[in-house]
């Protein structure tokens, strides 16, 4: 049996990352993205969920489409919107890089503060294991 490995999605470039996170900074766009992750949604069905005009919802979808977080497809008279999981994985990968960086830094700070276990034991004034003459 040969195990298959899944290649990670290509890394987001700086301008793509800017566009993705700028789009995700808006709550309506994040909500549209969540709804389209469960399945394709028509723009008119999405527009019924928000207290804003159809045109305003369409503009939010266009912003998400331009940065690659969703795709639009015509189905009859309607445009269906669905999330692009690969782009979301790219954004998640970028955040995971930052998380690894910070976890590594926090780990090194912890090591500096704690010191090696042997030094901690000898520095601890409540430690009775030392024998004093």
Automatic annotation (TrEMBL):
Residues 9-103 form the HTH arsR-type domain. Gene3D superfamilies: Winged helix-like DNA-binding domain superfamily/Winged helix DNA-binding domain. SMART domains: HTH_ARSR. Residues 114-133 are annotated as: Disordered. GO terms for molecular function: DNA binding; DNA-binding transcription factor activity. Keywords: DNA-binding. PANTHER family: SLL0088 PROTEIN, TRANSCRIPTIONAL REGULATORY PROTEIN. This is DNA-binding transcriptional ArsR family regulator. It comes from Herbiconiux flava.
């Amino acid at each position: 049996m040969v195990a298959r490995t899944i290649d990670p999605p290509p890394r987001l470039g700086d301008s793509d990352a800017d566009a993705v996170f700028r789009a995700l900074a808006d709550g309506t766009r994040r909500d549209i993205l969540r709804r389209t992750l469960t399945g394709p949604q028509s723009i008119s069905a999405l527009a019924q969920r928000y207290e804003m005009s159809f045109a305003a919802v369409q503009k939010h979808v266009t912003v998400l489409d331009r940065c690659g977080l969703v795709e639009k497809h015509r189905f009859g008279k309607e445009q269906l919107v669905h999330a692009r999981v690969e782009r979301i994985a790219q954004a998640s990968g970028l955040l995971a890089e930052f998380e690894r960086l910070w976890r590594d830094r926090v780990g090194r700070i912890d090591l500096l503060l704690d010191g090696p276990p042997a030094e901690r034991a000898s520095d601890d004034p409540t430690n009775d294991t030392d024998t004093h003459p």
